[in-house]
Amino acid sequence: MFFRYIKEKYQEAVTNFFIMLFSLIQATRRGWFEVQLVTVHLPEAYINGLNKLVEMKHYPNKSEAIRVAIRDLLKRELWERQAFYGRTPISGRE
Question: What percent of the chain is helix, strand and coil (3-state, nearest 5)?
């Protein structure tokens, strides 16, 4: 019974995650999100790495590379946990 419960919860979390991700992708494609300018200070090594990724044609520009990195961070640290636990953890890491 326990494993069945875990399996059902896992399947539910995965389903919720993909629904949320699909909604986010659709909203982004439709231009529903306004972008805001954020200024950050980064070490030179990070800037060099971003430039290299753009130079290698992995991303069209540094801004897009940073957006993708932030999206992946949020997906991993916030949205997947929320989908799995059904809530956002109050404290940082668990």
Answer: 70, 0, 30
Sorted by where each begins, the domain ranges of the chain are 2-85
pLDDT tens-digit map of 3-33: 777 777 788 887 878 777 777 777 776 666 6
Banded pLDDT at 40 (limits 50, 70, 90): very high
CA distance 72 to 70: 5
Task: Report if pTM > 0.85.
Answer: no
Task: Identify residue 39 by its one-letter amino acid code.
Answer: T
Count the Cβ atoms, other than its own, within 10 Å of residue 70. Answer: 11
Report how far residue 23's alpha carbon sits from residue 80's, in angstroms, rounded to the nearest whole number: 14
37 close to 25: Cβ distance less than 8 angstroms? no
Phi, psi values for residue 23, rounded to 5°: -60, -40
Q: Dig out the tokens for 93 from the structure.
A: 């890491």
**What single letter denotes the amino acid at residue 67?**
R
